[in-house]
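Before drawing any conclusions, I needed to go through one protein's amino acid sequence and its C-alpha cells, quoted below without any editing.
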Amino acid sequence: MNQKSGLSQEALQTSLSRRGFLVIGAGGTAAFLAGCGGGQGVGDTNTDAGGEFSGEYTGPAITLAYWNGFTGGDGPAMTAMVKDFNGQAEKITAEPNTMDWPTFYQRLPAASQAGKGPDVVAMHIDQLATMAVRKVLAPLDDVAEQIGLAETDFTGPVWAPAIYNDQRYGIPLDVHCLAMYWNQDHFEKAGIAEAPTDAEGLDEACKKLQEAGYSEPMWMPNLWPAHIMFLSLLWQFGGEPYAEDGSEATFGSEAGVSALTWMREQIDNGYSPATVDADAQYLQFKNGKNSITWDGIWQINDLQASGMNWGIAPLPTIGDTPASWASSHQFAMTSQAADDENRSNASKEFISWMSDQSAAWAEAGMIPARNSAREQKAFTDSPQAALNDYLDNLHFLPPIPGLGDVTVQTMEVAVNAAMLGKSSPEDALSEAQDNATQLMQENQEKFG
C-alpha cells in the first residue's frame, strides 16, 4: 500500500495505531502530566500501601474501581477474568472501566488528583515510571511480599523494568513481543520447509518466494511497527536505545546504524515497496498479498479469526544475538487506594487472584508472565507457546519518566526518514539521538 511520503511531525504522531499506543504511550502523555503537579520524585509516597494483608480481604463489602485499556481483541478475555473474580470473591466487586489507551493515560492523573480515580489499574510497563513520579501510583514492594510474589515467579526480563527509584510499581500480567509470521501456503509453493532463523535464511526465503511469484514477500513499514522492529534489531546488534539513568539517548550507535541499514536494504533488495504506511504490512499479509511479516503477538486472535494458513516463530537473528522488543501489561495500585486500608487490601486480593489465574489471559493472545501460568494447558496449547523458549531474549525499555514522548518525537522520526529514503540511517539517527538527549535532560530537570 503506497502512501504519500511527506509527513509532518503532527501527522506522524497521529498515524500511530492503537497498538502503537499500547507500546510506547501517547506522544503527549509526558507533556500532559507535567501540568499535574508533583515532580519531586517518589520519596515521600506512601510505601506501606494500606497496612498488612493476610492474603484475604476481611473488611466490609466494597466495590473496586478497575481501569484498563483492553478495548481490542484482548477485551473479552479480561472481561471473563473479572467476571470469574467477582463470582468467587465474597466481599469484593471489581467494577471495570475500559477505555482506549490514550484516553486512559490522559484521564488517570487528573482523576486521581481529584480523588475520582480508580483503585487498581492495568497499564503498560513503560508508563509506570511516569505515573510513579507524578505520585499517581503507590509502590508495591510490600504488596509483592504480602501476596507472596518474587522475581523467580516470572519470566526473567519482565521483573526489573517495573522498578523505578528502587521501588516496585507493577505486578506483571503478561509479556508481549514481536514475532515473525509467515503464510504457510506461500512457503509450501516456494518449497520452503521451515521458518528462517537468521539473516541468510531470511534472504534465501525471500528470493524463493519471489521465484514462486510473490514479488514483494516481506513489506517493511516506515511507520508503526517500524520503530519496534528497529529496537529489536538494535538489541540484536548489541546496542542499547537509552542510558539506564535517563541521561542520554544511544540509539544512534554503530549498532543502531546497522539495524536501520538492514531494514532499508529490504526495500533496496526489492522485497518491500518503498513506502508502507502504519499497519499496512500486516493488513496485506492477512489478505495474502505478502508472505512474511514481523508484528506483535496481539495479532494472533485476528489471524485465527481470518482463516488463513499461517505460522509463528521468534524473530530471525539478523545481528549477533537473539533479541526482540517487548512490553508488558502490569497491575498497579493507585496512591488514592493506598490511603484507604480497605481499598488497599481489596486491591491486593484482586491483583493476587488475577496473577494466580493469569493462564486464562493466554486467550487474549498474550504470554502470561507468571511461570506457573505458562505450564497450564491454556497457554501450552496456544499459538504463542511457540515463543516460550525465546522469553529470555526479550528486551524492555528502561523505566525513565517521559520516555514515551521522547521516542515518538525522535527515534520514530529517524526511522521514518531513513525508511522513506529522505536521509541516510546514520544521519537520521545522529540528529534524532541529539534531540532525544536534549529532551531527556529536560525531563530530568522537570521530573526530578
In short: The chain has two domains: 9-17+176-326+401-447, 28-175+327-382.
